[in-house]
Specification:
7 helices; alpha+beta; binds adenosine-3',5'-cyclic-monophosphate; globular
């Protein structure tokens, strides 16, 4: 059993895609262990993506992530991290595999509909960033 963090980004929430995306996770055998809809701020989005602070796309990434509410989830299941990444498809929607969330919905590399943790250490850190232990069930 493994856990990973998933975010439905503002472009997914604003286009009413929450149900479709969660359904893909559930159909693939992942369970929603925690979930909330929140509005990120410049501070919370900047801290969450702190590892990218020096990258040229950081400013655009933060302003996109605070452009509307997001849904954050802890997903759990066998191989949850890899399974979630497969369901999402590549970061750049132009390179995302057919049938993946980003291939089906993403509009650009910033408005790429979903975020998912990239490994066990980041998954633990990212889940703890948004959820207290007693909120994960
Ligand atoms: P995400 O998985 O949320 O992690 C960081 C985000 O930065 C990424 O998805 C993209 O939305 C965004 N981003 C914008 N430009 C790039 C880039 N050149 N390389 C990686 N991520 C980028």
């Amino acid at each position: 059993m493994e856990r990973t963090l998933s975010i439905i980004k503002p472009d997914g929430v604003s286009r009413n895609l929450i149900g479709d995306i969660v359904s893909r996770f559930e159909k693939a055998g992942l369970r929603v262990a925690a979930m909330k809809k929140i509005q990120l701020t410049e501070k919370t989005a900047g801290d969450f993506y702190g590892v990218h602070r020096e990258r040229p796309f950081f400013k655009d990434l933060v302003s996109f992530m605070i452009s509307g509410p997001v849904v954050v989830m802890a997903l759990e299941g066998d191989n949850a991290i890899a399974k979630n990444r497969e369901l999402m498809g590549a970061t750049n929607p132009k390179e995302a595999a057919p049938g993946s969330i980003r291939a089906d919905f993403a509009e650009s590399i910033d408005a790429n509909t979903v975020h998912g943790s990239d490994g066990p250490d980041t998954a633990a850190e990212e889940i703890a960033f948004f959820f207290r232990p007693d909120e994960i069930l």
